[in-house]
Amino acid sequence: MKTFLLVEDRLDDALLVELEFKRAPGLRLRTVRDGQEAIDYLVGLPPYDDRFAFPLPNVILLDIKMPRLSGFDFLNWLHSSSPGDLKLIPVIVMSGSGLEQDVRKAYQMGANLYMTKPVDWDQFRERMRLLGILWTEHVETPVL
After folding, report:
1. Which residue positions in the chain have pLDDT lower than 50?
2. pTM attached to this predicted model
């Protein structure tokens, strides 16, 4: 079973991802609302201190534009200040922005993949399905 941590402030986008992940066997999705909640989750602060209920993720799905602590701020923390081997967790940026400066900055800050969120529901579903197949059947992630 692979665990994905979705870091997304928009409830409608989070719901769409959750719907697709429920259809995919072998995938577990946990969702937080911003970069600060993602940090709290990864370091195991309450309410995320039960690792059975909130296991460390194999992959992080990260939005960039969020209140409180943005995706860029989270990437900065993950790759410069996170404890232990947390920085080894692959990060897929899923953003509504296709701006070249956002894409470049995300990769410079350690993102492993950058994809724009399609507006079309069928395209969005297909991308989620392919992500699930790729990361569960073809990609090895470190055990933390």
Report:
1. none
2. 0.95
